[in-house]
Amino acid sequence: MKQEETLILIPKIEKYIEYMLNVILKIPRTEKFNIGNEYKVSMYRILINAVYINKVGIKLAHLNTIDAELVLQRIYLRIMVKNRWIDEKKFKVSMEQISEIGKIIGGLIKYYAKNNKK
Fold first, then answer.
1. 43-55: per-residue pLDDT in tens?
2. Residues in CB range of 36: below 8 A, 6 or more apart
3. What is the CATH number of domain 3-115?
């Protein structure tokens, strides 16, 4: 495990969560408590698993959980933009942030898988 990779991950997740909380606050009230709540729970699961990776060390289960949550969040975002609960700009910014986190997670999964085959 490269320590600096995991240290980069947590601030990126924090920045993403801060941005998305502001986005979620502005969606229609009925959806704020439905899809908005699901989205928040998903974001916090990502943060929890990133902290575990940082404290306990890389576990493939934590990486896969983060990866799966990112897939869910992409789906939630597509639903939100299709229903016009968020605008195209917020959608693009959110997707870019998810993509950036996903690239780090993908790199860690490849690194972990490669170095555990020995």
1. 999 999 999 998 8
2. 24, 27
3. 1.20.1440.60
